[in-house]
# Entry
Amino acid sequence: MENLLYSLPFRLFGIFLLMGWSLLLGWKARSPDSRPRLSGRSILGLSFVLFIGIRLLYAPDREQNVDTSTWIATALTVGKAENPLSTLLNYSDGRPLAVLPLAIAELVGIPLDYRLTDFMGVLLWCLTLWLFWRILKKYLAEETAVVLVWLPILIISTVFNHDFASYNTEIMGNLWLITGLFWILNLSLRSMGSVLALGFWLGCLPFVKFQTVPMGLVLGLFTAWKLYRTRRFTSVPVLVGAALLPVLLLTLYYFSQNDLESFWGDYFSNYFVYSYTTQYSALSTGDRFSPVRIVRYLFHSQQLTLFWVGVFGGGLLGVWHLVRRPVFRSTDQMERLWLGTVWLVASFYAALQAGNNYTHYLLFLVFPGLFLLAVLYEIQGVATNWKWIGISLGLVVVQASVNGFFRKPLPIHPGEPLFQAVSAEIKQRSQPDDGLVVWGYVDRLYVYTRRPMGYRASDTFWVYYPTSTQPFRMKEFLADMERNKPLLFVDAMTPRISMFADDAFEFENFPAIKTYIDRQYQLVKTIEDVRIFERKKKERNKL
# Structure
């Protein structure tokens, strides 16, 4: 099947299909009353069918990105837990709401693999894009709004930069943000209850992904401004209080568990160190936000270059046209123009602040860029905006065509035979509910074996990597090992299969951990340079 999918005739067929559909969308945006007589809703629905079909065809049942393995491991651990809520809160790397859809699937008995997880990600994309289309069509023609939604579909359908396309926390982060924006712009905020609910929704963003907080603050400030402008002064403190409520509730929960230290360490301290220090990236603050780095970051993947040119180039063209030929702008248009601008700046800040050029961070730039483009199209009016849409669409179609032509299958990891051998040994020596801990950064072993995590992280990177949070992480690791008493401890600290492998990170170099493993576990199998330890029988009898 893979040979057929990546054969030149099939790839060309896919390119012509996407080009043909793109031409139809552009034609309908130019002449909405022309044939075929399809509504904007119908065209969008067919676009989603095409999107889902292409992604299903090309979704491999292999790890596209290590983060996907992390979230599957978390979800299956929640699905096997005696207390799913506590496990979701503690075993999700501080992002329980990002993992929630996958955890629900496991809880209702749907075992996740990579292909199914990718499919769930595509469905979440469709929901996000549908809400975004609902926002845009309030200000633009339905057909024009469909074209803007089609631009990211084109790229996500054809990109084979798997860090950008695979299931990751940015998918739920964008869904949460777009739902909040839809709520703000499309629904009434007249009742105090709706203000309370919106504030609570935005306040949940840190538990989707901490990186979404700057964008959430922008949406919250925009909501407060709208309430202030309509003289609903008493609703503003309600909005603020509701936004703080999720943090307060989780604080009370962890206080009741006598575990506030974990709440602070897992949800906040670690991400502060990650984002605002040089412990995980040597770039200074100035270098992180320098124009040179921004350009390099945007264009370091050749599979995305023309997409960003189409979106941001179209936006710059719109700004230039607006300055050159000023037109009347209503108060609502000016509000949305400022909202789009500040939202985009906040998204750039969120993507750049950690100093790491991970491609999936760029997903946060998609929607503010398109929203700002839509506002500029709206201000200029129908007479000129179709030309800009044609330019943006044309550039993205070219990029998608290039991606489709050069699309290649996901390479098999060189260590795959070792992955399989270790996984087979783990499954032979344990039962489906027996806990597993892997020393190293090899999250896919949880997915291959479908064994739950015995430590609250699917890898031990945070434990062995030298940062200011290491003492806390080491204490947490030993506490989890003693509490959960996982049956197997696998030392996979080898560059053949583990990311960031280094001799300095071997568990024997950490006396407290070595002492615990020596006392509680015995070596039962060595497969090449991977060691499998099993909990001693006398220790298991104490369970």
About this structure: The chain has 26 helices and four strands. Residues 382-406 form the longest helix (25 residues). The mean pLDDT is 93.
